Amino acid sequence: MVRVHVVVHGMVQGVGFRFSARVEAQRHGVTGWVRNRSDGAVEAELEGEPAAIDRMLAWFDEGPPGASVSSMTSSDLEPTGEPGFRVLS
């Protein structure tokens, strides 16, 4: 298991990014959370098998239809064993 912190910048709010991320996370068996930030970015923590996290990072780099990702950063964290995937406000 691995866990990563992700911050995505661009036109990523108001385009269904968080809810699409939850669908993708469930599809890949990834746990964690996603939320909008006050600076217009989307932030998430993703936990799962390395291959699943790689697929999620690739998805975050593109986002859902209507999103325009200008940059994405990620950093490794210690896994927590968090269950499920939550959309935070």
TrEMBL record:
Keywords: Hydrolase. PANTHER family: ACYLPHOSPHATASE. It catalyses: an acyl phosphate + H2O = a carboxylate + phosphate + H(+). It comes from Agromyces intestinalis. Pfam families: Acylphosphatase. This is Acylphosphatase. Its EC number is 3.6.1.7. It comes from the Bacteria.
